[in-house]
Amino acid sequence: MGNLIWHEYARYVALSATVYTIWASFWGFYFRKFFFDFVNGILRNPGGLQPANSDSFFVAIIVKAPVVQILSMILGFVYLALDYPAPFVKNTAIHRSFPIRIVLLLLQAFLAILFYQGTNGALYSFIAACCYIRAQMLGEIMPEAKDNKGRGEKA
Question: Averaged over 45-72, what is the pLDDT?
Fold first, then answer.
């Protein structure tokens, strides 16, 4: 049996989470719901669960205007361009950087957890970030970094 290459596993999970989050933010445009409205919500009959007045900020940026969904979709496309990679990003230091991927995945998880459709994508993004953290702790480097070793001018 071989060793698990954590950054490869994290890459596959992150790609799946990012595509899921982009798709969820698309559905979040049409079916707007603040996920944590059940915490302070008021149950009315008829009308169902309605968010409390203290959640008005989140209702404004998720339900009234889909700001979080738009930011989540933009961040998903940026991460997809970084991780897939786009031709202008390939073989650069940004493409090989684990800390940038970790920060982007955690930000994506934070944005996706706020709206109802993005909760699974947020969970998968957090798992991928944890796997990248594990890869960095084990000292793994990407194959592109091994290929560029000893070349002064090239990234």
Answer: 89
